[in-house]
Amino acid sequence: MKRVHIAPTLLDAQLAVDALSSLGIVTHIFNVNAAGALGEVPFMQAQPEIWVDNDTQEISAREALAGLRNALPRDEKKCLHCGEHNPGNFLSCWQCGRALPD
Ligand SMILES: [Zn+2]
Known about the structure:
The protein is an alpha+beta fold. It has helices spanning 10-21, 32-36, 43-46, 58-71; strands spanning 2-6, 27-30, 49-52, 76-78, 85-87. It folds into 2 domains: 2-71, Alpha-Beta Plaits (2-Layer Sandwich), CATH 3.30.70; 74-102. The protein contains 4 helices and 5 strands. The strands form 2 sheets. A 3-stranded antiparallel sheet has the order 1-3-2, with helices on one face. Strands 4-5 form a two-stranded antiparallel sheet. Strand 4 (76-78) and strand 5 form a beta hairpin. It is elongated and about 45 Å long.
């Protein structure tokens, strides 16, 4: 197995996994339980990781994920609660977990 992606949120991870599975690439998400405890564990340890089952699909998976990232908005959002900057595709603030403005 090879790790191909570290997602900012579980939602992001799920989108990536769905996109990969539509290409026939079997993946698993690790750290899912830790992501549920966000706020109680250090942020970097809580990020969901995407691993491909089949090592020979690592390159295909990385290319597919790169395409996916480019399709996402790159603007930043500023959290109204704590003022932290977040990537434009985040739904909630990585720092404080509050919902971000649209
Ligand atoms: Zn915040």
